[in-house]
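Q: I have two molecules that I believe assemble together. Could you output structure tokens for the complex as a whole instead of separate predictions?
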Amino acid sequence: MESKGGGFREDGKGTEFTRRDVLKAGAAVAALGAGLGAGLGGMGSAAAQQQDMHFEPEKGAELRILRWKKFVQGDEDGWFANTQKFTEKTGVKVRIDAESWEDIRPKAAVAANVGSGPDIIFGWFDDPHQYPDKLVDLTDLATYLGNKYGGWYEAPKRYGMRDGKWIGLPVGAAGNCIVYRKSWLNEAGFETMPRDTDGFLKACTAMAKKGHPAGFALGNAVGDGNTWTHSILWAFGGRMVDDQNNVVINSPETVRALEYVAELYKSFVPGTLSWLDPNNNKAFLAGEIGVTANGISVYYSAKTSQDPAMQAMAKDIEHANMPVGPVGRPTELHLFTQAMVFKHSKYPNAAKEYLRFMMEKDQYEPWQQAAIGYITHPLAAYESNPIWTVDPKHTPYRDTVKNMLWNGYSGKLGPASAAAMADYVVVNMFAEAASGQQTPKEAAARAERRAARYYKV
Amino acid sequence: MFVDTKSQRRASARAAPARRFRLGESRGAMGLLFMLPAAAVLLLFLAYPLGLGVWLGMTDTRVGRAGQYIGFENYEMLWTDSVFWTSVFNTLLYTVAASIAKFALGLWLALLLNRHLPFKAFLRAIVLLPWIVPTALSAIAFWWIYDSQFSIISWSLTRLGLIEHNINFLGDPTWARASVIIANVWRGIPFVAITLLAGLQTIPPSLYEAATIDGATPWQRFRYVTFPMLTPIIAVVMTFSVLFTFTDFQLIYVLTRGGPLNATHLMATLSFQRAIPGGNLGEGAAIAVTMIPFLLSAILFSYFGLQRRRWQHGGND
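A: Yes, here they are, computed for all two components at once.
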């Protein structure tokens, strides 16, 4: 973990004094600070930096939290340590349950449905937009954090806000980058991984010819399947729906994206149609593939391995951001998590205070460091976290959320976008076209029919 | 000595308690009373969820939002949904193929185990293993066995020089269907085998002796003694086996999540995918409800068909 500078510590002390002041002065000051922050825009930002926000936890408050099970050990350790700090400071007991990230969605849905369960749930993608009425308005908190930490990136705003209100608090993304073996790329005649889709295709083809195929999940892989296929779809200008939620997936742009992936598929290792989330990690670490898209976990497990062969591989692993297509700007999709405070919680203020505490620099940056960059921030100020530069191989992950679009781009988030992703409409479309089971045009038409069912209302 | 306690009691009792006594003595009323707890459990835990499922299937309920009644709209949508029809086809194929294989192999195994073998008890215990191991665990084992890069089968065959490329077990629709069926058969055989073995042991040896004296061949002994005597238990075992197979979920969910290209999506897995991660509880329930006719017909077939006495005795209707 990176050492904390003196500035950090001073900041921490300052926070404490302010907190005490606020306690004395009552909640009115905090509300005023928030109001200033929210109302005055740029000027509010300066004011907010002076005036830290604070929510007074309810008497005897206890929190139950449901979050995802660690992707990397450091993530959980860092988060738990921060939580411990919170309990020591406020006396609010916090119980954290961890579930596999894919199981959070059904659990959160049930909690929303029955009106009881954890106070805070860290959900994924469009979860808050499935039951916005059941969630506590977090506008004051999100506005405060945005003002204090350089503003929210664009996609997190989309994920967190509905009708001008914040219903979820963006926490971060488990960003995906292109992960490749540098020596094999060099062997294929490329110095670094090309940043555009055409160059990327050429590099993958050349590496495959040298016996180092690529491997991207085309099975019903919730994370790895959805993220890279959406990124490519958008890179060519294809999208599920337009701004008004009209289904427009059956477009020449989509067909071009499908043709591209059909071509790219020729450089894939056999079996990617069956790949679920763990397959690419296994295949990459076993040296079966030379290129894939993944979180930083592949690099992390190679680097922290006791096996010298693995450590040598870690030195050879390089990362690059997802290639940019004809649209000329990054179009990435990443696993994005946000905190939801449920209206059934008896302690909404304690919950908000907990989230505020965890998102403040003193906690957030050490947490990112503990997770060695597995979590990418939604707030611009955390770009300067030393974790992104301490090892140049971390750097591409820094920009994943900045480069991100949202699920169901460029339409509205909601039940339809969630259902279309859960039904693997885009993944299946790419798999059909790549495997040649359907022509790109047929695959796009089929996806249109499937998507229309969800977007009909 | 005979003492008429009833009339004595009746004589001494007052009018109101007497009525209570009569209620206590009525077999019908007491029977009803004793059945109440069981009926309540059945209603609460079976009939209510089933009714709720059917109702949900006729609403547009989403997670976090109560739905409205929309009649058969969910079913109309499913009617035009190619993925749903793929899942129906997959489920039927999966159930029929796996059940036939489980029955044939299970019966064969039962017949073998019914012989006098050394270490009989030990062997019978071993046969049960696949059934005892939690499905989720054995499914993970199969997931490795079928892995596109690290499959032990592909590895062995490559080493033996029989194949050049790894077999794409779960990546090719046909292979994937066969692979999940084999995994299901592996898991289901013990149930069939052990239950049929229990049935075999209830057949009186005298029947075989009589058949042997009449000059019956081993096949005739099986066809005219073993099989008819075993039919009732076959009916029960296969009913259960078909039900378990038809509603299988865990194996598919671990191995393929319904992929590749939805080639292994069963109705149960599709129902889950649409209802929970997808958030369309109404549609998911509708898919689940469409399983009921198939399941009912399987049950009716076995109860009214296989259990008929005439069939059991080798006759026709």
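A: One point stands out. The longest helix of chain B spans residues 82-113.
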